[in-house]
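Reviewers of the previous submission asked for a worked example of the structure-prediction workflow described in the proposal, so we include one complete record here. The input consisted solely of the amino acid sequence. No template or homolog information was supplied to the procedure at any stage.
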Amino acid sequence: MLRWPAIGGLLRWRHARKTFQLLLLAIAAVVIVDGLFGPQTPTNNLAPVLTWVHYRGLLIIALLAAGNLFCMGCPFVLVRDAGRRFLPPAFRWPRRLRTKWIALGLFVLVLFTYELFDLWALPRATAYLVLGYFGAALVVDLAFSGATFCKYLCPIGQFNFMASTMSPLELHIKQESTCRSCRTADCIKGRRQPDAPQVVVQRGCELGLFLPLKVGNMDCTFCLDCVQACPHDNIALTSRLPGMELADTRRRSGVGWLSRRQDIAGLAVLFAFGGMLNAFAMVAPVYRLERWIAHALGVSSEAPVLALLFVMSLGVAPLVLVGGAAALTRVIVGETTGSPRDTAANYAYALVPFGVGMWTAHYSFHLLTALLTVIPITQNIATGLVGWAALGEPFWRWTGMRPGTVFPIQIGCILLGAMGSLAVAYRISDRDYPESPVPPTAPWVCVTVALASVAIWILSQPMEMRGGGFLG
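From that input alone, the workflow returned the following structure tokens.
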């Protein structure tokens, strides 16, 4: 694609990423200003609409259509780069913390906070969340070198990394011989000025992905710094079969062996089950369940009830389903070495395609049913807040597709995701147990079918909006 006349030229343009970042920075500024000073009703404010409807929906579509485009244009990195001009980082992230465990915990925290405080309905809180994200990225990356916040802490980044394993595009080298003869490794070290080696003309990969050993899209932000830094024009952006990197056994730069990364396997499980919980928390049956739990616990606050629901959905359910399937797989193949945890970690990646299907089905509902709402809200801001009447009176009837017309699209997303999970599970079984007389994929077929059935049931329920009183 980098050789295509129009798109390739744009992607290879040195300022392409910065232009995209400036665009998203401007949108973030609009979200912050309207969230803080605009009307505090969620349907009349751009902060919740752009953040929780359009951004999330377009994010997952971009990941499936091309790749990690929103990490590529991340405005947090732009602000961080500006800050580093005045305060260069002096530390390196501690080696023992170079895992996904902290990011996994932050991912759960964001999901929990979103549900507990109904952030979709709070424009000012949404604006403060965006400001907090900017502040966190700035503080961490002004202290620690590289892309520390992106790789080890950012919940949005981890979501993007996991979903990008199902993207159709990937950055990789063209000719191995060219990399073998390269003596500078600019793709990872950066290109320096010949007469002043201390001056970096173009930085290399800040996430530590050495292109000759890179496999797949995990931890790749699509920043294209490697493309700009390579003096041999030996990096290509090409198509590939989505999801197959999840069953790849090769050691990958910056990641290691995927099958040995318990933290990334845990992130894969959280990605799938978190998608189901996030959708379930917005349908009518969840309120009956929460009231029943509150009555059983004898509490009137939503926090402990929601916490228990999270523990059951993101702890107990994965442990029973994934752990049970792993144990059964070991019985089927007669495995006596290793542990069920290792088997579970191997097969956990098979849940990612289903997770992508679940998140896409959920986010597409909000995006498609409210696609045009940004227009009347913008008109309302122009006439009411700014006093500019050129856009006319708000077209409040402009919303989006009807929920009934979106439902078949959602079902298609779930079925495609489930089929992808079955394909990855089969590849893993064929890789690890090629001689097994009994198909070891059978337990994972049962898990995938069960998850897909529950997902379809969730999507068929009437959508409810949180807020307005936990106990009615």
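The two ends are 54 Å apart (CA to CA). We consider this example representative of the routine output the project will generate in years two and three.
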